[in-house]
Amino acid sequence: MLTDSFGRVHSYLRISLTERCNLRCLYCMPDEGVELTPALHLLSSEEILRLARLFVSAGVDKIRLTGGEPTLRKDLVRLVASLSALPGLASIGITTNGLTLGRQLAALRSAGLTHLNISLDTLRPDRFVTLTRRQGHARVLASIQEAIAQGYDPVKVNVVVMRGVNDDEIADFVEMTRHAPINVRFIEYMPFDGNVWSDKKMVTYREMRGAVEAEFGPLEPILSPAGEVARNFRCQGFTGSVSFITSMTKAFCSDCNRLRLMADGNLKVCLFGANEVSLRDAMREGASEEDLAAVISAAVYRKKAAHAGMFELAATANRAMVKIGG
């Protein structure tokens, strides 16, 4: 069910819980905002759990909850607890902006949350307001510290690097890993609808790594598992680690094991692919588990060998990132 025509087995499912977000990040949400899907057309908790159960029974062993901002979902803790109880699921993570995470983190930890990614693109409070169009920088930093205190190791910090915007902070982010179990993940700027992508604003993996090594010396490679999207390293003597996500300049399509279930119930087999299939509609029309498996299997089998190049992607219609799920 989860093997495509190129033999790639998909064991990682990302589930977007909501299209809503309490930030307005420039690279994620268009200036004019997005038209939210009416609540009745979003997956219910029962539908999410039904689909998750089906995917896990077919071989998914890792689920990541995304958004929008997943901590805005009122039943998040209950969902995490229900998902973590699925037989065969080894890992359940969340990608969050950290703004309201701190007050929920202990409950999420108890519910079974195993992995944590916090998005933060600047260490400067004034720049945070410019990038996110909102206040709250101190709360995000506090959430990172609370995650460390709760025992998450590593705490992953996602940083979208943009030329002339925050590329002067690369060394400052790496410094966070010196004494703390933090994995800073530098991400190449990617094109999505409404984010006014330009290759001139994109800082490449080669440039980012060069900036790190110029400041801290040669990076020590860390052995990564198959399907890992990041190139992982450690500065000599540092507690934490540094990673680079190279979607634009060094794509990792040949090892891709990821599928995305969006908040409206559409299955997306490639982050940059336009093709989607509605599992919500199939369920609400009375599909059995076998029917759903057939729909999923057909979609996965049609997955392309690789996504297009960055310039073609920039010219191709896709959803805004906030509606796909981080």
TrEMBL record:
<dbReference type="GO" id="GO:0006777">
    <property type="term" value="P:Mo-molybdopterin cofactor biosynthetic process"/>
</dbReference>
<dbReference type="InterPro" id="IPR058240">
    <property type="entry name" value="rSAM_sf"/>
</dbReference>
<keyword id="KW-0456">Lyase</keyword>
<keyword id="KW-0547">Nucleotide-binding</keyword>
<keyword id="KW-0479">Metal-binding</keyword>
<dbReference type="InterPro" id="IPR010505">
    <property type="entry name" value="MoaA_twitch"/>
</dbReference>
<dbReference type="Pfam" id="PF06463">
    <property type="entry name" value="Mob_synth_C"/>
</dbReference>
<dbReference type="InterPro" id="IPR007197">
    <property type="entry name" value="rSAM"/>
</dbReference>
<dbReference type="GO" id="GO:0046872">
    <property type="term" value="F:metal ion binding"/>
</dbReference>
<dbReference type="GO" id="GO:0005525">
    <property type="term" value="F:GTP binding"/>
</dbReference>
<comment type="pathway">
    <text>Cofactor biosynthesis; molybdopterin biosynthesis.</text>
</comment>
<keyword id="KW-0408">Iron</keyword>
<keyword id="KW-0501">Molybdenum cofactor biosynthesis</keyword>
<keyword id="KW-0342">GTP-binding</keyword>
<dbReference type="Pfam" id="PF04055">
    <property type="entry name" value="Radical_SAM"/>
</dbReference>
<dbReference type="GO" id="GO:0061798">
    <property type="term" value="F:GTP 3',8'-cyclase activity"/>
</dbReference>
<dbReference type="InterPro" id="IPR050105">
    <property type="entry name" value="MoCo_biosynth_MoaA/MoaC"/>
</dbReference>
<protein>
    <recommendedName>
        <fullName>GTP 3',8-cyclase</fullName>
        <ecNumber>4.1.99.22</ecNumber>
    </recommendedName>
</protein>
<dbReference type="InterPro" id="IPR006638">
    <property type="entry name" value="Elp3/MiaA/NifB-like_rSAM"/>
</dbReference>
<keyword id="KW-0411">Iron-sulfur</keyword>
<dbReference type="InterPro" id="IPR013785">
    <property type="entry name" value="Aldolase_TIM"/>
</dbReference>
<keyword id="KW-0004">4Fe-4S</keyword>
<dbReference type="GO" id="GO:0051539">
    <property type="term" value="F:4 iron, 4 sulfur cluster binding"/>
</dbReference>
<dbReference type="InterPro" id="IPR040064">
    <property type="entry name" value="MoaA-like"/>
</dbReference>
<feature type="domain" description="Radical SAM core">
    <location>
        <begin position="5"/>
        <end position="234"/>
    </location>
</feature>
<dbReference type="InterPro" id="IPR013483">
    <property type="entry name" value="MoaA"/>
</dbReference>
<dbReference type="InterPro" id="IPR000385">
    <property type="entry name" value="MoaA_NifB_PqqE_Fe-S-bd_CS"/>
</dbReference>
<keyword id="KW-0949">S-adenosyl-L-methionine</keyword>
<dbReference type="GO" id="GO:0061799">
    <property type="term" value="F:cyclic pyranopterin monophosphate synthase activity"/>
</dbReference>
